[in-house]
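Practice problem: predict the structure.
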Amino acid sequence: MKTLALEFYKCRRRWVWLAPLVMLAAQLAWGLWSFRNMSEAELQEGWCNILYTFPLLNAMMTPIVAAIVASRIADIEHKGQTLKLLETVQTAGSLFCAKFLCSVCYMAAYLLLQTAVMVIFGVLHGFVGPLPTVEIALYFVAVLLVTTVLVLFQLILSLLIPNQMIGMIFGLIGSFAGLFSLFFPTAVQKCIPWGYYGVLHVAAMDWNEQTRVTHYYFTSFDMRSLCVAAVFLVVLYCIGRRLFVRKEV
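Answer:
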């Protein structure tokens, strides 16, 4: 806990929270524009609509946020060349764990605010039906797990490679990969970590080509894919931690 507190202390002037807030503001602006002047039929499917749409926004925006957060947390050690100094007073493994937990805390706060924005949208716009607490909880767990995997991947890159542009490039590539994977079959999406925003969905869309009417509905949650993502997170953490511990500082 002391190591984690030290990480937050080191980040106090790093403006780590700026990127999540900017992306959240962009999503808020999009929501205000997209969910305005909704018809009665659209209000009936409002909760399904918003729970289907926000994973698309996450696929586009959240990988970039994860890359920025991981880069800001890791780059402070590269710029100050303090990794070697820190490892004289603490183990490399504890340092890696603290930076990982610190980055997860920032991303979790971002996703929690995002979920709150979704609920506020639904209540203010008068979505029909009770608040789908189960679906919202599943949505939050899913996006938090996927985002944790991505921010861990970005943190590993940022810690191992001093040039932070490499991590940012991977973040941009992941953003495009996650977005375009949504147009591919589910089997293809499951092969791309960024595509799990679409795999772990709680709502789906049905577009009628003849009537050109879009219908949103809740769908069964893919618990097996959630477990796969959790296993991948553990494996990636073990590999990343081992690589960092064995890294020549």
